[in-house]
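Collaborator request, handled under Task 6.
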Amino acid sequence: MGSLTFDRQLAGLVNSGERGVLVGGLKGVEKESLRVTPEGHVAQTPHPRELGSPLTHPEITTDYSEALLELVTPAYPDSARLLERLTQLHQYTYRAIGEERLWATSMPCAVDGDADIPIARFGRSHSAHMKEVYREGLGLRYGRLMQAISGVHFNYSFPAQFWPVLAAVRQSRETGQDFISERYFELLRNYRRHGWIVLYLFGVSPAMCASFLRGRSDPGLKTLVPGTLYGPYATSLRMSDVGYRNSAQSELLVSVNSLREYVRDLARAVVTPHPDYAALGVRVGGQWRQLNANVLQIENEYYSFIRPKRVTAPGERPTKALARGGVQYVEVRSLDVSAFDPVGVNMNKLRFLEAFMAWCVLSPAALIDAEEQLALDANHVTVARRGREPGLLLRREGRSVLLAHWAAEIVDGVRGTAELLDTGDPARPYTSAVEVQAAKIADVGLTPSARLLEELHQSGEGFSTWARQVSSAHRRHFLEVAPVDASVLSQLAQAAEDSLDEQAIIERSDKGSFEDYLARWFA
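Structure tokens returned to the collaborator:
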């Protein structure tokens, strides 16, 4: 059946007799943070042994840098439990890192060039070596400073009971995994069209330390105080062309029109040589510089606002997992670390995102051609750079529209899915979370990016000084204020030891050469 309007699909769910059909979707968070010294410099110490092995620990690992911690919660049907676990992971981590802090913002502390960013180390196994060579390649291709930016990823899957009800509403004869994957790709297309609203509502990186630009100028940025640059109307410099959205992948178009096209485009990029990367060398003087000289070394190098995901089997590539089993969940990657929340995220944000995911899957999702994709990418960069600018216009279906009008239209639709998520809860927490966001559209001064700039203006301090003070306050919160469950800390200590044992087993079981290992991986 053709695409139904959002209102008709929502009404179909309401009238299905299964009003709780959206309740209980699984939610998880991956939260990155730089480890820094008390003085606010990138920590040069190795990943603490008390945190276990970053190669094998399921909840405490590292991202690009040895200093870039990543805390990964399990998936929970309840956001309160998710935030409780994220708090526990922070409490345990702070007890392991001594006087160091977790940097409270997405844009990094004062940095002294690429040499200040140590690449993460994972041990002596082939899989560890592959991770390290991949990171060497990222640093070579894009510079290490870009890899020092941190963010929050929100993982979400709809509850199992949702799919058959939606299939009935859509009068679809298909109800299995193909139907589910197709609906997730509709969600992906709508996120590409409308996900800029996440930057407006939750972006909290409008300022940064001038050291990040390494002496380069940027006409869109102003000097707040010496050493601090800011965008007067910026929401998320992290997600702008200053941060992750650099020009290196601008020519790489990966379709979200279907699972087949998505896998095809990513797989092609992983095997297509790139002359600039070939010129850098793959293995020079016996030392690996990158995994290969292709457009992407591996699929994960492709940076996007949102990804379709499936849990991979050991040694399985992400595209192989998707082709094998279809889409299992989505990973929203455009959230900044919030300096105003010790764990980097809050309940209202999680609830709005869950309701927004439902709105995206229920709204019509026409296919996206290459021309529209370029316009959609430009909208994201515009909002990241100038999202709070009065009268800001975005491009929508070939015409210019006011951000404020479009955002209000989106939020009005999300109210409908929030009501379904509130089923059985008289407190209506999802509806309340949506109204908090609606207020930010009516009053741009309520956005976290505006709030951060106001705090900098009021304090008269530079970005790094302010963020260092906030980071220290967060440290006190986790060590002195937040209630601690000793049994949980003990369990996490055991998990760390178990992960070290697991790493040792992997290292002992390796067979053959690293070249053989890579050949098997890419086969």
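The cover message to the collaborator said: "The domain at 6-522 is CATH 3.30.590.20 (Creatine Kinase; Chain A, domain 2). The longest helix spans residues 486-509. Please let us know whether this matches your experimental observations."
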